[in-house]
Design brief:
The structure is a homodimer.
Chain A lengths: L34 H7 L6 H18 L4 E6 L3 E3 L6 E5 L4 H12 L3 E7 L21 E4 L2 E4 L1 H19 L3 E6 L2 H15 L6 E5 L6 E2 L20 E7 L4 H8 L4 E8 L5 H12 L3 E6 L6 E5 L5 E5 L2 H5 L5 H20 L1
């Protein structure tokens, strides 16, 4: 059984959910505060049944053959299209470094990984060579009329290739892409429902940067907005809040699973408070807090019992290019061990 | 002389120019209708002098040593940040296919190319292997404990590598990245002023997808917008129009150069009209019109004399994966020949 390939869902024609108000104050934006109402009013992406099938096969394979735990790692930012024929969209910044790096450490620690990622964001293993300022071709050289890997990079690249091939051959990694927030929400729901059979052996590691705001599908212009059509040359975009799906995830879709959300802030003064209030609101197991400025050096595990455990790289580790995920993931797994324990007793 | 490398300007800390209105109708958005006022009120990116130096050296090298014409190719979409510590931004969709592909054909036809591109968008040559659903590592294989290029891909990749190395060794290609619309505008201005010495031998091929709207720097929140801080859970973003810089380019910055702009629409009924009115307004030499849906199969050259010349791929060419840029660029060069001729007589 070979692992399914990542699908190519073009940004140019997303399952879009947006509207633009150019009439300024009269327009009453649709308010969708309820998760069910969201799914009633927004169409699923057309490819969803195909993904459901692939994910089910993946989960069944591991239930029957490997007994591995399964981590769903979400990664990268979602988009909110501003037009149906999308030229413009609002994006949440995220290269996907946290998710792609974490996925590798989950794999190394014996988990199978469902990697739900923004298309073209960083992927496990290939992340070491993509998105660099070095061009792909700078790793190549010509010798005796043949192309080869530049010997400077060959040893390191072989190590990465072996890990990548291990993950492929053991069918431990499945790549599922999204672009829009609508695609993300529908796919998360579907994958979560599939993972229900895993009970406490499923781990949700929700590192994607999901838009807080969106524009309901009901008022989406078909064509590119013309600047001449706007009042005083201005464009006013009115966004509604994305419903909070985490409680639905905890209570219905993935009951029994261990759920970890992330809180990314830029203001140090509100980080712990916001992480704590997320736990109070959704009753899940762990919030990993981080600041945009220091996220590669330190994170904080905020737990329902009130503990705030910081994980930090020391100076030597920073100099040695140690990845903080190499310390985070074993700590996450320890919490997962306890979760499984407490659910079995 | 080795060509300068593309710089890594992080999206996380752009020279941002934005404001968000959460108070809804009272706020009077700053109107910046004039190009000079824009530059007075917005700071240049800190790295601009470095780019200026690199571009000047590149131009001087070709003026002294190769007498090549120089094409400035702009490519990819600009962003408009919504916060200073940017997590969210508005983006214009463009993978940069048109620009990256066109740059290769300019190089093959003897031009030197300044490639002003959105960071991480497609680049000439590496475009054949990046952004594909195939992972970088899928092109590699292990044999006798060594990593090598999979023989399936080796011949084709060698051809691309040779062209890439030719461009590097002849110092014919310089890569200049941007992320925000402010970085784009400042860099375009600077590069244009440097190209002034080339007179009619300079060609501007403005394929980048530049935002029509932005938010003036004067009202930019420092930290991530909190959804709890918005009225009724809504977020209203009020954008001003980006000043139209093309007339400044034609009249001042790059006087004498041949200037080509692009018009991308989704509505076939307004394409020619909009292309023609751009020519009327800016008095430049050529607008290349294209529709989002068919842009890889057909484009139209709209000229000041009223001619609309379509360039289309026929069925055989489409089946044979012919790139439309292989026909477009020779046609562009013919127009450039005439422009140089008319300027010398």
């Amino acid at each position: 059984m070979t692992p399914p390939q990542s699908k190519n869902f073009h940004t140019a024609n997303p399952e879009a959910e947006s509207a633009i108000d150019r009439s300024i104050p009269e327009f009453e934006a649709a308010k969708i505060s309820d998760e069910d109402e969201y799914f009633q009013n927004h169409k699923p992406p057309s490819y969803l049944p195909e993904i459901e099938k692939e994910v089910q096969e993946f989960i069944e394979y591991h239930r029957k053959n490997t007994q591995k735990r399964i981590a769903l790692v979400t990664s990268g930012g979602t988009t909110v299209p501003l037009e149906n024929n999308t030229v413009r969209f609002i994006d949440n910044f995220s290269a996907g470094t946290r998710g792609a790096t974490s996925a590798e450490y989950f794999l190394e620690n014996g988990y199978a990984v469902i990697f739900l990622h923004r298309e073209f964001s960083l992927l496990p293993y290939s992340r070491h060579y993509s998105h660099s300022t070095n061009c792909f071709l700078d790793f190549m050289t010509e010798k005796n009329d043949k192309i080869e890997i530049n010997p400077k990079f060959a040893d390191e690249m072989l190590k990465v290739l072996r890990k990548y091939n291990d993950a492929k051959e053991s069918n431990s990694l499945i790549l599922i892409p999204f672009t829009t927030v609508n695609q993300y929400l529908y796919t998360l729901k579907t994958v979560s429902e599939c993972l229900h059979v895993m009970s406490s052996k499923a781990l949700f590691y929700l590192a994607a940067a999901v838009s807080d705001f969106f524009i309901p599908q009901s008022r989406m212009p078909t064509h590119k907005i013309q600047s001449s059509a706007t009042k005083d040359g201005e464009l006013v975009i009115r966004l509604a809040q994305v419903p909070k799906f985490l409680s639905r995830l905890v209570e219905n879709w993935a009951q029994g699973a261990m759920i970890i959300s992330f809180k990314l802030e830029t203001d140090n003064n509100i980080l712990i408070k916001k992480a704590t209030s997320a736990l109070d609101r959704y009753h899940h197991q762990l919030v990993i807090g981080n600041l945009l400025q220091t996220r590669k050096k330190e994170v904080v595990f905020v737990k329902p019992n009130g503990d705030n455990d910081w994980i930090k790289l020391n100076e030597d580790e920073i100099k040695g290019n140690v990845e903080i995920e190499s310390k985070m993931i074993p700590a996450v797994i320890k919490v997962h061990d306890e979760w499984i324990q407490s659910n079995s007793s």
